[in-house]
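Per your request, structure below.
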């Protein structure tokens, strides 16, 4: 087996406190650290943990397709591994949640014979469940990236929570300033499943312990007129209670409602 290795970790959402002991050890021990985080404070903190740190955000450019940007990040990560270095790639939040380069880098590293693994991290979803008091095991939960939700014509189960990620950049496939141009199309599509007055939640986890999360509740029809942060997530609560499958209840010997 070649001498280089790759470990992918998450920094969590809140600065320092969400970093697991395993992730911190991987960051500090790596021959080289490549990272992508959301704010300059976290960036400075990461670089203190490992002086051999280099940010991957230099691959972003206005108008450059995200797929092209991610491919460049993967190649940069693998180029260091191929030199026989023990490389750590650290990403904001959970490194396997909405982080395409992490999965591809691990797949290709293993394909080339290198040791490669991923450590879990605290994601925005974890913070969302805690901050909004949602238990996905109670009513169920559907989860989609906002643009993919529209272009793939995903079905909606109105008795479950619907979570739409990256709603602040819905319809944008290239890097650049966040735009709300795709929001009307999203609202129009959602109104085929929910009434205009149905309350939805615009949510953004707080990156710092001292600051509260962003939680804005609004009728669905008014979503187009409110400012949506670039990193926001849209939460659509259930429209109705799930219907009981009486035949299945009888088969399982469970009482009918």
């Amino acid at each position: 087996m070649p001498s280089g290795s790759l470990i992918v970790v998450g920094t969590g959402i809140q600065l320092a406190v969400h970093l697991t002991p395993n992730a911190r050890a991987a960051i500090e021990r790596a021959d080289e650290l490549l990272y992508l985080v959301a704010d300059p404070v976290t960036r400075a903190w990461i670089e203190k943990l490992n002086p051999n740190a280099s940010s991957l955000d230099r691959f972003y450019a206005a108008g450059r397709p995200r797929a092209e940007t991610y491919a460049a990040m993967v190649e940069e990560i693998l180029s260091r591994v191929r030199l026989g270095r023990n490389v750590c790639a650290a990403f904001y939040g959970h490194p396997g949640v909405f982080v395409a380069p992490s999965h591809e880098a691990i797949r290709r590293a293993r394909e080339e014979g290198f040791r490669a693994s991923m450590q879990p991290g605290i994601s925005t979803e974890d913070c969302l469940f805690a901050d909004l008091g949602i238990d996905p095991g109670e009513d169920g939960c559907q989860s989609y990236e906002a643009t993919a939700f529209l272009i793939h014509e995903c079905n909606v189960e109105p008795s479950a929570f619907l979570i739409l990620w990256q709603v602040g950049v819905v319809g944008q496939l290239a890097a650049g300033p966040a735009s709300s141009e795709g929001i009307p199309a999203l609202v129009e599509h959602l109104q085929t499943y929910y009434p205009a007055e149905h309350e939805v939640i615009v949510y953004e986890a707080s990156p710092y312990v001292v600051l509260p999360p962003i939680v804005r509740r609004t009728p669905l029809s008014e979503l187009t007129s409110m400012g949506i942060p670039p990193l926001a997530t849209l939460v659509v609560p259930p429209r109705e209670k799930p219907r009981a499958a009486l035949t299945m209840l009888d088969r399982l010997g469970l009482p009918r409602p």
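The chain has a mean pLDDT of 93.

Regards,
D.
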